[in-house]
Amino acid sequence: MAAQVQQSAVGSVHGAHDSVRDREISVEQEHLDRVYRRLEEKIHEAEFLMNDAAQRGQVGTPGALAERDAQVFRAGIHLNRLNNEFEDFLFGRIDLLLGKDGKKGPDGAYTAVEPAEGAVREDGTADIAETLHIGRIGVLDADYAPLVIDWRAPAAAPFYRSTPVDPGRVVRRRVIRSKGRRVLGVEDDLMRPELTARLDGRELPVIGDGALMAALGQARSHTMRDIVSSIQAEQDLVIRAPAASVTYVEGGPGTGKTAVALHRAAYLLYQDRRRYSGGILIVSPTPLLVAYTEGVLPSLGEEGQVAIRAIGSLVDGAEATLYDSPSVARAKGSYRMLKVLRKAARGALELGTPEPVEQLALDAPDEDEDAGQWTAAASPTRLRVVAFGRRLELEAAELDRVRRTALGGTAPVNLLRPRARKLLLDALWARSGAAGRHSDPELAAELRSSFDEDVTSEDSFIGFLDAWWPELTPKQVLAAMADEKRLGRWARRILNPGEVRKVARSLKRDGHSVHDIALLDELQAILGVPARPKKKRDLDPLDHLTGLEELMPVREESQRERAERLAQERTEYAHVIVDEAQDLTPMQWRMVGRRGRHATWTVVGDPAQSSWSDPDEAAEARDEALGTRPRRRFQLTVNYRNPAEIAELAAKVLALAMPGSKAPSAVRSTGVEPRFSVVPDSLERTVRAEAERLLDLVDGTVGVVVAMNRRQEARRWLAGLGDRVVALGSLEAKGLEYDATVVVSPAEIADESPAGLRVLYVALTRATQQLTVVSGDRDEPDAAGVPDLLRD
Ligand SMILES: Nc1ncnc2c1ncn2[C@@H]1O[C@H](COP(=O)(O)OP(=O)(O)OP(=O)(O)O)[C@@H](O)[C@H]1O
After folding, report:
1. Could you tell me if 457 and 579 lie in one domain?
2. In Gene Ontology terms, what is one molecular function of this protein (predicted)?
């Protein structure tokens, strides 16, 4: 295919400059054409090999064949997806001075890549010795020379790590913007502006003001974009950090923690696909953030092995749909709940058989309408059986004793049932008087075993055991806790009476809160699941992964379906990434910890944005979940989201919320100051008018953030304004961003919970361009409308 030279989108006002830009675009276009020609060749090869292999069966060593086929076949898949989905398959280029690669760092990237001696002449001139193109996947030409280097390969690291302060061999770093097969533009950053560098005898041209600024200024949609073409050096260090142990990342709002976490998942898969076939779990705070970030991994060519799940969706068959008030959340999230649950799981046994058992099973997702009510047939208080022709009976006191002894075991409650059964038989045997009948131990044992058989085959015994030691499900126990008196008993000296009342009331509601999900998971561990005959299931292709087989399921099952299926089947993962980690309660840390007992971890968060009121307790739980694995700590310091004007305002709240902590520095300024608006009469009219004004000003999205208890009415305020604008409760705004935001009543948000100031800090840091703060009386605005909380 002939190279197509594309016209620059920029007009010709700038004359000579534009012709240089056009020439540079056409240079990149030629390269992209070569890449596509090569990909087409590979897809043909792949089809040929596939057909050939199908006709002739396996030839050669299966591993080697499969590996080779997989490579070409993967190229085919990528080509299809490139044509359909990717806007910028090839996105970067670096022009390098002559040099020798230095030492490899622990992450496999070259760390000390300095120019060779003599690469820069004394007069400040130098020649470009090597040019590398960077893209979403690697492509080699027919001679195995790289046409495109995968962004995750060590050789691509200088594209991200080189800075004017520490340029290494990189002279010019170029971001290429393309759509499908068409190059649309280029943006250059000069890493060594002091040099006069030549490429093929011509001076190296530099186009544009840098790609980062161009990316940051773009309008936002309701889905996050990948940042693969503009990852910054400090972020790249985190993405490529070795997987072993725990990678711990802190950074203020907008420093790219979520973006980095997602790119890290893609990087880890690239590094060691086989190891991570055990699955990567990304835990996100809200379903909104899951929906916002879901597209990033597919855009990086990865999805199958990564499950992104909200913290309220980690337990299959239960989904968080409700919010708890701060005081209920505080009780349910705290470590104290562990003791309450242990007591409840044991206490629930005494309540007898829940009715109907199946309807409340944890794995019956659609049938939990009764979760708030505990309808039980009372636990039997007498056991009557006939054995060896005699009637035997155990009364309430004896049954109680047996139950207490059985519960003295350390196994999960449901797994103690065999022990309880054995103790019942012992008690009945003692009553039978048959114990001393034989002195010969063998005969005595025989007699006992026929006694046991006699008793256990009786319907009355079987029925009794089912009612007296029913197999409990987590949902049943949680439902049993909705009774205030009962909960009061189980939580004596653990929760105060006010907490008992509120927690019990919250459990009466139809549905579960995000905090209930962690309780259900804990109960599952406390109760245990008795072994059942395993269901036959199809062979998991990942169990026998070789290059080719890995790709086969793509045809029968979409990547997404496969990811969902695997996510459901999996209970433990090879790597766990926790986003917004500062928000996890102790009980949630326990839940997440159970999913990564043998995993390596990446934990990203910002203590200043924590909505959990007791950070010390949460830190203790986190340390317990992460165990003694060594930690590698990183700090992200640059705010890519908020313009300086907005970051400065938010920093005032940070100073109140966490005195002494440092806000990240904003990377850009827009000259647009935040706007302050007071409510003259109707809050609804003020907010709606402001949202309309902002919708006119920005191309992308507008978020209206209100206190949690106003979110329903706020949705009504905005009715009919279209889907570019959304209303959010303050806790729902976590991790999201909008072109413009309206923050309604800082005082209301701050007063809503003990962590209210930190929640307000989150709300104020969501905007990429414009922020309006609307104040009511409670905010005590000054003459300029600035609320008390945001004044100097
Ligand atoms: N290197 C980068 N190039 C371009 N955009 C970037 C870069 N790093 C971050 N961003 C953008 O900055 C914004 C903030 O990123 P992200 O949401 O990952 O930050 P965060 O640290 O998780 O923020 P928060 O703590 O507020 O949730 C996003 O729009 C992201 O795409």
Report:
1. no
2. 3'-5' DNA helicase activity
**Does residue 406 sit in the same domain as residue 456?**
yes
Cβ–Cβ < 8 Å for 487, 500: yes
Q: Judge whether 280 lies within some domain.
A: yes
Please give all residues whose beta carbon lies within 6 A of any atom in ligand 1, as ranges. Answer: 212, 215-216, 225, 227, 230-232, 235, 251, 253-259, 606, 609, 640-641, 735, 737, 765
What tens digit of pLDDT does each residue of 147-176 get? 999 888 888 888 888 888 788 899 999 999
DSSP codes of every residue in 387-409: ETTEEEEE-HHHHHHHHHHHHTS
Long-range contacts: 533-542, Cβ < 8 Å, 24+? 540/566, 540/569, 542/277, 542/566
Specify whether 199 is located in the same domain as 270.
no
Contact yes or no for 394/510 (Cβ under 8 A): no
Q: Are 310 and 289 in contact (CB under 8 A)?
A: yes
**Considering 199, 218, 237, which residue would you say is the last residue of a domain?**
218
The model's pLDDT over 462-479, given as tens digits with 9 standing for 90+, comes to: 988 988 898 899 999 999
Question: Do 703 and 765 fall into the same domain?
Answer: yes
Hey, which of 173, 737, 741 would you mutate to test ligand 1's pocket, going by the most ligand atoms within 8 Å of its Cβ?
Answer: 737
| DSSP secondary structure, 18-40, as one string | HHHHHHHHHHHHHHHHHHHHHHH
What would the mean pLDDT of 1-21 be, rounded to a whole number? 47
Task: Name the residue among 306, 210, 320, 298 with its Cα closest to residue 265.
Answer: 306
Which protein residue's CA is at the shortest distance from atom 9 of ligand 1? 256
* 535 lies in some domain: no
> Domain boundary at 614, 638, 662, which?
638
Share of the chain above pLDDT 70, in %: 81
DSSP code for 4: P
Q: Tens digits of per-residue pLDDT, 79-114?
A: 555 555 456 778 999 999 988 666 666 666 555 567
The CATH number of whichever domain residue 780 belongs to comes to 3.40.50.300
Does residue 193 sit in the same domain as residue 78? Answer: yes
How remote is the CA of residue 643 from the centroid of ligand 1, in Å?
Answer: 12
Q: Where are the alpha helices (DSSP H) in 143-194?
A: 157-161
For residue 615, give its domain range.
257-323+571-638
Q: Can you tell me the distance from the alpha carbon of 763 to that of 703, in angstroms, rounded to the nearest whole number?
A: 10
Question: What total of structural domains would you count in the chain?
Answer: 4
Q: What is the interface pTM, i.e. ipTM, of the complex?
A: 0.99
H, E, C per residue of 623-674: HHHHCCCCEEEEEECEECCCCHHHHHHHHHHHHHHCCCCCCCEECCCCCCCC
Six-digit token pair at 445?
Answer: 């044992």
pLDDT of residue 693: 97
